[in-house]
Write a structure and sequence with these properties.
This protein is mostly helical and 137 residues long. The protein is 71% helix and 0% strand. It has four helices and no strands. The longest helix has 29 residues, at 17-45. The model is unreliable at 1-12 (pLDDT under 50).
Length: 137
């Protein structure tokens, strides 16, 4: 039997919470960076006054952002010396979350889709991390 003073305060039933939050933070950072790259690419192709955003153009943002989430997740796993996921496994959750989030806020305005993409994409990454840690514990 272990004494309560021997327990790690960061240990939540076998879950490494600081490492999980590090991976989520790196995932969100990767999404921000790749969204910035996507935005710069879009602005570099626009000549003249901005045109109304097309639906096809706006739905490419969740894909670019999901790639950023996945790359950030993979870097986070490497930084925390945790499991090694394949890129396709790391991208599934944020891709679905980002597209669902974008479609949820689309009726309120096309320019708001990025907020839904980041909000639901981040929740999807957190759910993936929690699911994986519970499975691995």
């Amino acid at each position: 039997m272990t004494d309560s003073s021997d327990r790690n305060p960061n240990d939540a039933g076998g879950l490494d919470l600081p490492a999980m939050f590090t991976r989520i933070f790196m995932s969100v950072t990767g999404a921000c960076v790749l969204y910035g790259v996507w935005l710069a690419a879009i602005f570099s192709t626009v000549h003249g006054p901005p045109a109304p955003a097309s639906l096809g153009l706006l739905l490419t943002a969740p894909i670019a952002t999901a790639i950023g989430f996945a790359l950030g997740t993979l870097l986070g796993e490497r930084a925390t010396r945790h499991r090694r996921s394949r890129f396709s496994d790391a991208m599934q959750w944020p891709l679905v979350g980002g597209i669902v989030g974008a479609l949820m806020v689309l009726p309120f305005g096309r320019t708001l889709t990025i907020f839904g993409t980041f909000a639901v994409g981040t929740l999807a990454v957190a759910a993936r991390e929690f699911w994986a840690l519970r499975r691995d514990a």
